[in-house]
Specification:
This protein has 2 domains: about 55 residues, 2,3-Dihydroxybiphenyl 1,2-Dioxygenase, domain 1 (Roll), CATH 3.10.180; about 70 residues, Roll (2,3-Dihydroxybiphenyl 1,2-Dioxygenase, domain 1), CATH 3.10.180. It is built from 2 helices and 8 strands; from the N terminus they run βαββββαβββ. It has a 4-stranded mixed β-sheet with strand order 1-4-3-2, covered by helices on one side. Strands 5-8-7-6 form a 4-stranded mixed β-sheet, with helices on one face. The radius of gyration is 16 Å and the shape is globular. The termini are far apart.
């Protein structure tokens, strides 16, 4: 067997309306359908890239790292200007920005969704990884996206 691509992500959320609105309105995901307790999104690459399922409860924004999912990365464009534009937009929309980083091959913005799931929004700034796989392991440098 060989995995061909990452197909989709499914997240359990505490409130479907709040989370679905965040992924649609703040991040710009195209919502395909919403029903009581679930919402489906796709960028058109496949039948769905993101599925949200409501499970109730309260988000935990102070959880400590434990084995399991750390974050989900979403490409937002190419070049430093794409990251700067996204950073401005996220600030305008009052997204919870928890960090930024220059990874050498990407410029990244880290945010939390309404349930505290960490999302990396990144713009590719180099194709060095195509010839040097170790390029993705470079030490993260600070990145100031404010103007």
């Amino acid at each position: 067997m060989e995995i061909k691509e990452l197909g989709h992500v499914v997240l359990y959320v505490s409130n479907i309306e709040r989370s679905a609105n965040f992924y649609r309105d703040t991040l710009g995901f195209k919502e395909l359908t919403r029903s009581p307790g679930a919402a489906v999104f796709s960028g058109g690459r496949t039948h769905h890239e993101l599925l949200l399922i409501e499970v109730g409860g309260e988000p935990d924004f102070n959880r400590k790292p434990v084995p399991g999912l750390y974050h989900i990365g979403f490409k937002i464009g190419d070049g430093p200007e794409a990251a700067k534009a996204a950073y401005r937009e996220l600030r305008e929309k009052n997204a919870r920005i928890v960090g930024t980083g220059d990874h050498g091959v990407t410029h990244s913005i880290y945010i939390l969704d309404p349930d505290g799931n960490e999302l990396e929004l990144y713009a590719d700034i180099s194709e060095e990884w195509k010839t040097n796989p170790l390029a993705v392991m470079k030490r993260v440098q600070s990145l100031d996206l404010s103007e």
